[in-house]
Each structure stands twice: as C-alpha cells, then as structure tokens.
Predict the structure.
Amino acid sequence: MTIYKFPNTDGANVKFASRYLNYIGGKWTEPRKGQYFENPSPVTGESFCEIARSSAEDIELALDAAHAAKSAWGKTSVAERALILNKIADRMEANIEMLAVAEAWDNGKPVRETLAADLPLAIDHFRYFAGCIRAQEGSMAEIDANTVAYHLHEPLGVVGQIIPWNFPILMAVWKLAPALAAGNAVVLKPAEQTPASICVLMELIGDLLPPGVLNIVQGFGFEAGKPLASSDRVAKIAFTGETTTGRLIMQYASENIIPVTLELGGKSPNLFFADVLDQDDAFRQKSLEGFGLFALNQGEVCTCPSRALIQASIFSQFMEMAVERAKQKSQPGNPLDTATTVGAQASNDQLEKILRYVEIGKQEGAKVLLGGARAELGGPLAKGWYMQPTIFSGDNAMRVFQEEIFGPVVSCTSFEDYDDAIKIANDTLYGLGAGVWTRNMHTAFRAGRAIEAGRVWTNCYHLYPAHAAFGGYKQSGVGRENHKMMLGHYQNVKNLLVSYDENPMGFF
Amino acid sequence: MNDVDGNGVSDGASPSRVSVTPAAAVWLGRLQAEHGPLLLHQSGGCCDGSAPMCYPLGEFMIGQRDVLLGHVCGTAWYIGGKQYEPWKHTHLTLDVVEGRGSGFSLEAPSGIRFVISSRLLSEAEINELDEPARGPQTSTG
C-alpha cells in the first residue's frame, strides 16, 4: 500500500502551479478580463490554485485559434492523427502516477480508482480511437452500371465540449479522443469544480498537438459555457451534466441548427434475482460486490447503481450480507492512500445536497441501514467533504429512488417476480445504466432487453471499456459515447454521386 | 411575503409548494439587482441535477409541460412536467450553501450555490393546494 504525499509538499509527485490560465492556440493565455477564481481540493477543503475566470472574449479567442487550425488538422492523414493520439497515450502512461494523484486531489476521489480506472481508461481511449480512425472506411455503392455513390467521412470542423466534474480527465478524454481522431478542432470547457487536473494534462501533452487543435477555456457556465454553447462558430456541442442545463444547451443549439450530444445522468436500477444466493461461491461474492459498487467514486457516477432491486425471497439475507460488506469495505479515508475505497465528495454543495436527500429520504419513511451522515475525518482531512456510505431501504416511489443523488447512497427495495422487477426498474424518468445479476442466462437476457436503459451490465457493473457504447434512453440524454460509432457524432457524411456515363440522360 | 413553514418564506397565500430561506432571499435579491428579473428551474439527473438553476428571465424557454411550483421573492420556480410527478408530494425550500456550483446557474461565480431542502407536504396542504399552472399553453385549434 502506498500513501502519496499531498501535492506541493516535500517529496510529493505532483506540483500544481499557483495559477492556471487558458490554453489557447498552443499557449497559456491570460483571461481577457484578468479575473481568476479559487480552486479548493475536496480532500482538505482548502484552495490550492487559482483558475482563469473566462468570458465570451476568451471563448472567441479560442474559437479563432480552433478555426485557424481546423483545416490543416482535418486534412492531416489519419495515420498521422492516430500517431499523435498514441503519443498522447504513451506520455500519459509514462506519467500515470502523477496524473492519478493530481486527479484525486482536484476531484477528491481515491487514488486507488484513478490508478486503476480513470487514467488507464483515458489512456486506452486515445489508443482505441487511434485504431478506429485508421480502420474506418467509407463506402461505395453501385447505383447503376455507370453511376457510383461514394460515402466519405469529413470532420465537422470546430466543436465545443463541456465536461463534468465527476471524472474530469476521463470525461474530457471520452469527448476529445473521437473528436480529435475524426479531425476536428476542439474548444473544451472543464467543470469549474475540477479545473486543475486537465491543466496538468495539457502541460504534459500540449506540445504533441498542433497549436489551436485543442483549446481549454476555464470558467463558469453562464460566463464561459454559454458563449461556447450558443456560438454560431461551433459545428456541434457535447455536454455531460443535468437535465435543465441539457435543455438550455439544446435551446442554444436550435438557434444555430447544430447537433448536440447530451449525457444527463440516470437513476440506475441494479437487479438481483434470487438465484444469486443459491450457492455460497465466488459468484455470490461477485454479486455482493456488484451491489457495493454504489460507493464507487463516492456515488458521483451518472450510472451509479443507486437503486438496488432485490428479489423478495432473499431480501433480508441479501441485505444483511450487503450491509456487512459495505461496513467492511467502504470506509471514507485519505484519498491519497491506495487502501482508501471512498474519498471526498467533489464540492461542499454536493455534500450538502446529499445530506438534504438523506433528510427527505428519512421523512418519506425510508429506513437507514447504514451511514446517513457526514463522515468526520480528523487531521488535515477535517475540513474535507466526506460522506458516510449510506444504504436506504424503502419504496420506489420515494424521492431517494427517483432522483440521482450523486452521492454514496443506495436505495433498496424488493420485487416479487420477473415482471415486478422490470416494472420497478423502468419506473424512472431516466435510462442510462442498469445491472442484472442472475445465474440464469435466459433471465439475464430477457431482463437486459426489457430494461429501458442504454447499457445493461449483466453479471458485472461499472466497467467502461472504450469498445462498448454508452448513453441514455429517456431523459438520460441524446447520442452515445465510446465505441467506434462515436466517430459518427463528430463527422459529416460526404456523398459524391458520380456518373461515369458520357451520354446525356435524354430527359430535359 | 409570509412565513410559511418556519424555515422560509413564500410569496402569496399559503399553502405553497415552495419557500425560500432568508439567506437565499438575500442572494436572489443581489442577483436580481445585477441581472434583472430571474427564473428558477429545478433540474434533475446527474452532477448538479438535484439543484435549482437560476437564470435571467427569458434565458430558459419554459415549455408547455413545465409545472409552475410557485414564486419566491417574485421569481417563478418551475420544474419539468415529468419530474414534477415523483416530486409533487414534497415542499421545496430554496436555500444557499458555499460551493462552486455548475451548470449555467447565475450564482455560481459568487462562490455560493442554491440548493433545495425538501419536506413532505401535509395532507391538509395537499388538499388545499390547487393543481399547479403549467408553462405557456398554445391553442392547436
């Protein structure tokens, strides 16, 4: 086990700058208005750097740089673009511990997760799309003996991307890798809660990309996000966040008639059929672990399995084991200790929102089986934003079953049979993720098809390979991320309809 | 404004589905002074999904299915029609905490964030409350 030193202390492997500017046209650029905001670490609750507070002028500068770069980048051969993405991946891999600690410090998540998931997945994402773009082919259709339809892929040009705070680097890379592979120039706005780790990444990889191909503009939604999302100089806008902002972004996009992709969260059901307990074996433990994943990333995951639906015949036995397991395995602690499984919530307001949800859950009659309060940690962590993993037992109509709490909180209820399970699973506004656990593959397949969600993890959960499509049904959003199909969200289709007939049609 | 539930105030006659804490009312006033009339829309989903979003009036297009929960400090507070259904048995109080916020809500740069506190509406309140108004309805005839 390793305990990493706090950044900027003696012997630490991460040294943050005292101030981060915007990254525009390959240069660190001061915000035009000269304003900055403080960036606290959730680990300690204390500010560790200043970040550019940008406005419309800075977005315009970044768009100027992106437009200047887009043609050359779009015409760069796919071999060359793929090579650059692979170089980015290699450099990230060579610096993985530094990036993992920087990410943990900026977001509050345990370094155990950034080392095992966030960074390896981000690195692989660049490699995956480097491979995809090399292998992508257009098509040719023979319309008749002398007429051919060619279909070619072209980049959109300049795209805007607004990134959430729960996986600051990985969510940025989910959007960047396909956009860059497809030959687009990007203006990206990180979340204001977690703006620093992407700057550390840019310091590391910035020189690998031609100036202007990737521009980072920091700031707040209304001041910097809106000018980006409403610009008539972006060909597409991608956003991960919540429903009201999602609607606002669609509204802006409608002014310019540009496409949007939106990932807006969910309230993912995790279904446990009775046979998971049939034997006291590895699969039983795997299922219980699948339940425990509600605490991954402190529950700040759009697909957090925050509704556990457990067959009534095993409900008591399952809950007893699940609560005991969570008690043992999910304890908040120092995020920079590789033994820690639960870190800090990303912001004070997030912690406050979680605590308020616990309150309404209790008022509605949900029983607290575990946790239910702020976690008080001592020493330098005393002012950090820690929450006890919390397990509720209640009814699917309760607010804690209907709204994404975005905390380490799972709401559990029982179902009688298969039909009841599917009815409860689909009784939600959202449809992003779901889990199904059973030893019966017929049940697993039927349930997976019947659940209205973009991804149904079957006898697994919280795996995010680049080669599996991710996105929502219902109010969880529009479009997909991951998988080579994602290239389609960042490309136009050019059809060349060519006649090789020398003779007139004889029609007009 | 009249005291509704001891922890906040609401515009108009009680009962109401919404209220505002004194601290949040101060911030609404400051934002009104800076940006003009405002609108609140209760978000759902991921990240900042359980938070109310505060916009300059007219920025966010209220749709025909949005539900008007009520007014706080003269500011209309809406929620999406589908989201209203699982929320309709609860009363929301606009509150404010230190934070970074997100989304496009106006207060975020000030280092504070609007949040909601919820409580169950009593049976008496539910009986007294009228069916809430919706967003602009246009005739299809």
Q: What stands out?
A: Chain B has one domain: 2-128. Strands of chain B lie at 2-3, 9-10, 18-20, 38-42, 52-56, 67-72, 75-79, 90-98, 112-120. The longest helix of chain B spans residues 22-35. Chain B is about 20% helix and 35% strand.
